[in-house]
Amino acid sequence: MANTDDKPSLKITLEDLEKVNLRQEPVAVAGAGVAPGAARQYGNISTPGAADTPVVDEGKSKIYLQGWFYLGLAGLIGALLGWGICEPWFVDGPPTGWANWIADHAMMPLIIALICLGFGAAESLVERSIRKALWNGFLSILLGLVLGVIFDFIAEIFYTIGLGICYELGVRTHHNPAAWVARGLAWMVFGVAGGIVYGIVDRSGKKVRYGILGGIIGSGLGGMVFDPIAMATHSGAPSRAVGFGLLGMATGVAMGIVESALKDRWLYVASGPLAGKQFILYKPITAIGSSQQCDIYLFKDPSIQQQHARIELRGAQTFLHAQAQIYVSGQPVRSRALQSGDLIQIGRYAFHFRERHRK
User: Fold this and answer.
1) Whether the Cβ atoms of residue 290 and residue 298 lie closer than 8 Å to each other
2) How far apart are alpha carbons 118 and 124 in whole angstroms?
């Protein structure tokens, strides 16, 4: 049939195709970077395709999220605060008045109480759970005051016995290292008090044991260097400030190190505001959600429910029970036994579940 269209036919040759210049548009790649000054976006599993987006570990753990760091800092601040309150009334030598007697007998219990306050509130402050920090701090200082008085009395007994043994061995001066060891052994009692309070406020027997072990190590080291510091400073007040500060710091650092070294199951935060922190799983049931009453408090994400999930320790197995949307290794789950290395996504947070290899 003849072509009745009066328009000329369009003919394209190979030479014409070679002259065509295709414009390449840049393709956005997830995690490729953020424009300068732009707000950082963590993503959300409620958006389409979010479960398929690979989670990138946001870097090494920040130092202030390390347990040994924030516990050591909390112990240092608590000890120096207690020293600062009592030192103005303290006079070296025999008691010269009621104020000096009170300062002499109140200093260690108050220091222990304030160290316990720091230990009890530090982790909640790092996790930005202010309500929990206030409650734990209140409970810690009450327990710390009671245990401080009791353990100060016990420590004095230990110290008297230790000095008596040193005397029988011929030690007549505090310049002898044997006297330093005697003080260190006595101060271990204070570390026990700190460890007990640290575990009680978190309602964990295992945390009590780890805290006591770390407290004994740290406070023992702090006690043994107290007299050498006094000899180096040639003054009572600076030596007490440094010695008590070292007591609090060493106790906190040792507790954090022991806790991390002996953990068997934990969650490592791979992305989100707390990226780099680890949550050690102590309790039979660990609650996760946007409520500050949860054991793991996830903030600034409206997609996370107040009680979003719970982790159950059942013998050697660990189970995740979801009460809202959760992905494990990219798959939505309601209940699942976790394996070491599993990636858990809750809103903009991502966690690696890890457990110590059992022989």
Assistant:
1) yes
2) 10
Gap between the Cα atoms of 177 and 159, Å rounded? 14
| Confidence label for 32 from pLDDT (cuts 50, 70 and 90) | very low
**Are 182 and 136 in contact, with CB atoms under 8 Å apart?**
no
Distance CA 311, CA 301 (A): 20
Q: What are phi and psi of 121, to 5 degrees?
A: -95, -20
Average pLDDT over residues 15-24: 52
Average pLDDT of 185-200?
A: 92
Q: Which DSSP string do the residues of 61-116 spell out, in sequence order?
A: PPGGGSHHHHHHHHHHHHHHHHHHHHGGG--SSS--SHHHHHHHHHHHHHHHHHHH
CA angle 279, 126, 133 (to 5 degrees): 100
Q: What is the pLDDT of residue 97?
A: 61
Q: Considering only the C-alpha atoms of the chain, give the largest distance between any 2 of them, rounded to a whole number of Å.
A: 128
Closest CA to 185 of 242, 211, 223, 148: 223
Structure tokens at 263: 């953990």
